[in-house]
Write a structure and sequence with these properties.
Length: about 80
């Protein structure tokens, strides 16, 4: 997750367990066919980004998260 300020980073760290939980829930609902293509993974990234930004807006009054990137993506069958 990319943020613009040190304050946003501190806030993100505070809410990290909640954010991780939301990511796990989003990822667990996906079909293998969705995440097996680059386009599907990018769409999933955008869905997750929007969800996390909404969560941070509810918690902090502003979205704080500028972007979401995956360093590694593993699909378990």
């Amino acid at each position: 997750m990319r943020v613009a300020t040190q304050e946003a980073e501190m806030s993100l760290k505070y809410h990290l367990p909640y954010l991780r939980n939301n990511l796990v829930m989003i990822f667990s609902r996906q079909e293998e066919s969705t995440v097996s293509t680059a386009e599907g993974r990018d769409e999933l990234r955008l869905i997750a980004l929007e969800d996390l930004r909404e969560l941070m807006t509810q918690e902090e009054g502003k979205p704080l998260i500028e972007d979401l990137m995956f360093n590694n993506f593993v699909v378990q069958r």
